[in-house]
Amino acid sequence: xxxxxxxxxxxxxxxxxxxxxxxxxxxxxxxxxxxxxxxxxxxxxxxxxxxxxxxxxxxxxxxxxxxxxxxxxxxxxxxxxxxxxxxxxxxxxxxxxxxxxxxxxxxxxxxxxxxxxxxxxxxxxxxxxxxxxxxxxxxxxxxxxxxxxxxxxxxxxxxxxxxxxxxxxxxxxxxxxxxxxxxxxxxxxxxxxxxxxxxxxxxxxxxxxxxxxxxxxxxxxxxxxxxxxxxxxxxxxxxxxxxxxxxxxxxxxxxxxxxxxxxxxxxxxxxxxxxxxxxxxxxxxxxxxxxxxxxxxxxxxxxxxxxxxxxxxxxxxxxxxxxxxxxxxxxxxxxxxxxxxxxxxxxxxxxxxxxxxxxxxxxxxxxxxxxxxxxxxxxxxxxxxxxxxxxxxxxxxxxxxxxxxxxxxxxxxxxxxxxxxxxxxxxxxxxxxxxxxxxxxxxxxxxxxxxxxxxxxxxxxxxxxxxxxxxxxxxxxxxxxxxxxxxxxxxxxxxxxxxxxxxxxxxxxxxxxxxxxxxxxxxxxxxxxxxxxxxxxxxxxxxxxxxxxxxxxxxxxxxxxxxxxxxxxxxxxxxxxxxxxxxxxxxxxxxxxxxxxxxxxxxxxxx
Length: 607
Known about the structure:
CATH topology of the largest domain: D-tyrosyl-trna(Tyr) Deacylase, Chain: A
Structural class: alpha/beta
Shape: elongated
CATH class of the largest domain: Alpha Beta
Number of strands: 22
Helix content: 25-40%
């Protein structure tokens, strides 16, 4: 926040009041101060100190007895801010925000300060307002923190944390860009901001703000941005995957009395989204998929045309498309692992069904059976056999008699078999919405394996190497700031810098299918509950922000793109790492302040 300099008298008053408040020295109640009928009545600032909040810099503070020193710290802060400043009383800590104070706050300028920690003025009371919280472990530290900021403002310095940007604004930087950078950096001044945190913001392809932008951090699901970029580069946006049903050619030639004496082979092509309508429709959000019932209809038409109504054999699933046989990565470790190194995936990712089975042939993400609640799904011990069993049921429901139990196995060579039907998946471009907007882990991992298979090895290690090479080709030096060990971002061994995340989005382009497939912050999963908020006064629209969130126990991240009404394109990323940062919630102050800065950029120059 930029504020005019304070005169010597104001600075002196500020220093004295902060010192007295911090030391607990009784400060006489000014004439006209508000009082309470209780014995422990707080000494509140007089009405003239509360000030006219219209277009003023607000300072929010609790107004119960225990917060008396915080209140006088707020008086100090108001004394060194711009000429028009106001104190807004948040009420007692366990009571709602007083309505008359809310009305005063609604007329104030955006930004401002909150004196006191969440126990004094809860985040709920702030209702997402983009303000800088000033507090310490106790009243002394809070008063000291206020004094530090007051001293900085009084001397004309920026009270922001040091090292916020590698590109500090100069006199030639437009005011709108300076304001954008200041508002974007607000997340760094949040009490939740950890030491390990990066931010990067580009305006129309040029950097506006950077903080630790080139430091690779744990990105969580932002890793999917890299996986998708590599898949589009190597597989192509129009790539599809085919699932086929065949029979032995000699057995078909020997059909008698409607009986095929042989097996039907269901051959997987690594389709990540092969499913039944029931599995897809169990949730409200429609998403593209390959309807396996249509394959059953096609095969049934062929069998009817051949006069076959009985299969004296079995449906045999062939999942050899991914020959490595890796169905999960809970037993995988990065190179150089020690006894203290965690595996690529936690076992809980499987037990809680954060990711399905990885195989050349899966139906319904490899779950059999499944439930509305994904945590209640049952993971198939043999996903290929489960897919064969599922298809067996679909054919029998259509009137075919199949005499033997479904199993997994190998299909005959192409020259020795006859095609009975096939189905093609949606394109990779069409699948992006499942990976980016809905953050589905299984399709992301399956696409990574497809990249590896293109080079002849679909194992995780080979697929990661192939994807990394692809990123280096399309991203250049920024690819060195990305470390992939899986495709979904579930692993704690992935790394990505904010600069690399922004570069991936810039490479895609604001008008791309890639960006359109991201979640719309505040509107669609997985960011439906976290979008840019209107300013505290409720005036003005906000920009639509397309973004990808990422969250693990130790990581909270968000990156995305927004096009303002004037045509300016904002591309941004924020990654914060701290043990158990998940405790601050998904729509935390770091994400919220970042989204607010992007969504509220409605003040750019008109072309």
